[in-house]
């Protein structure tokens, strides 16, 4: 005799969700686990794990996840707290915000990218030197700036 037991506990293991090719969702999708999209979504995708946008997938909206691997098309913003990988077939139009970005050859990206700083990075002065001379062009190199092998810029030259 088989007995079904229903509990309030979350299932063991990692949750995986998928939306197949030929399927379109108009609305927001939220998942705590990993998610693979091979269809089309018009709306926001919030993923508590890794999202894979397959080569046939299309997203018109925002993606928010821990990690993401994009092989398809996205028009909208992509925000990851860890790593975003753009594969060779990826086509992105929008805003990227991520800690680490990997762009493989042939991936297409049109928009802006904001790299999140780690706590260790905020302690490091990442500012560029600025020419403090009387010139109005702040884009001039600073004295001693290396222009290439064996070449340096000095204002007296």
What does this structure look like?
By secondary structure, the chain is mainly β. It has a domain at 16-114. The protein has one helix and 16 strands. The protein has one helix at 119-122; strands at 16-19, 24-26, 29-31, 34-37, 40-42, 45-53, 58-60, 63-70, 73-75, 78-80, 83-86, 91-98, 100-103, 108-115, 145-148, 151-153. The strands form two sheets. Strands 1, 2, 3, 4, 5, 6, 7, 8, 9, 10, 11, 12, 13 and 14 form a 14-stranded parallel beta sheet that branches. Strand 15 and strand 16 form a beta hairpin. The chain is globular, with a radius of gyration of 23 Å. It starts with 15 loop residues before the first strand and ends with a strand.
Number of helices in the DSSP assignment? 1
Sheet with the most strands, sense and barrel status = 14 strands, parallel
Number of DSSP-assigned strands: 16
Helix proportion range: under 10%
Q: Which stretches are low in confidence, meaning pLDDT under 50 for 5 or more residues running?
A: 122-126, 128-148
Q: Could you give the order of the helices and strands?
A: EEEEEEEEEEEEEEHEE
The span between the termini is: 93 Å
How would you classify the quaternary structure?
Answer: single chain
- Structural class by helix and strand composition: mainly beta
Radius of gyration: 23 Å
Q: Roughly what is the average pLDDT, rounded to an integer?
A: 78
Percent range for β-strand residues: over 45%
Q: What would the principal axes of the Cα set say about the shape?
A: globular
